[in-house]
Design brief:
44% helix, inosine/xanthosine triphosphatase, alpha/beta, nucleotide binding, 6-stranded mixed β-sheet
Length: 185
């Protein structure tokens, strides 16, 4: 790190992403500064492949660097997505972390939760998954969905959207720390 206390930019103002970032960065750093910014991914509302989600993360990082002019040590981009397989359609997320001084990127992926068929069949690249879930699960309030995410609704709170990004970021940041310890980034 350039600073004793790293300055971190999160390319989102989403509450689940902020919560996950604060939790995981608190494990890695005794003190840090976190700025949260609305940054476009330039991909669909609900990416449907690893490639599209990772491109979205990279674009968030690029757009942050081009548009915000903040001096930071780490830039974090988080992107949720769905993937359709022969076994069903799954929801999960990616974390991409850029160590600014070295230019190196570190990646982490979350666990996956299977979408019910009626939700999977209603997916659209131009519709937010959360809007579809509110349409399909009429007993779920917008407040509960904001708090739990689709993951939390589908798992009865056992695996929330914050947990999804917590896992992905834990993998990305852990990889960076391991590399830093071995190579003195």
């Amino acid at each position: 790190m350039q600073n004793k206390y790293p300055v971190i930019a999160l390319c989102s103002e989403n509450s689940a992403k902020i919560k996950a970032t604060k939790e995981i960065c608190s494990l890695a750093f005794s003190n840090f500064s976190l700025g949260c910014y609305t940054v476009s991914s330039d991909v669909s509302e609900t990416p449907d492949s690893d490639e599209e989600a990772l491109v979205g993360c990279h674009r968030r990082i690029e757009n942050f660097q081009a548009g915000f002019g903040r001096e930071v040590d780490l830039i974090i981009a988080l992107e949720g997505l769905t993937e359709t397989t022969p076994f069903g359609t799954f929801l999960y997320g990616w974390a991409v972390l850029k160590h600014v001084a070295s230019g190196k990127m570190f990646y982490g992926c979350s666990g996956k939760i299977m979408l019910p068929d009626d939700v999977a069949n209603g997916l659209s690249r131009n519709m937010k998954l959360s809007d579809l879930v509110l349409e399909k699960f009429v007993s779920v309030s917008r407040e509960d969905l904001e708090r739990l995410g689709t993951n939390g609704v589908l798992s009865d709170g056992m695996y929330t959207r914050s947990d999804e990004f917590n896992t992905a970021l834990r993998c990305a940041l852990g990889s960076m720390i391991a590399k830093q310890n071995s190579m003195n980034l």
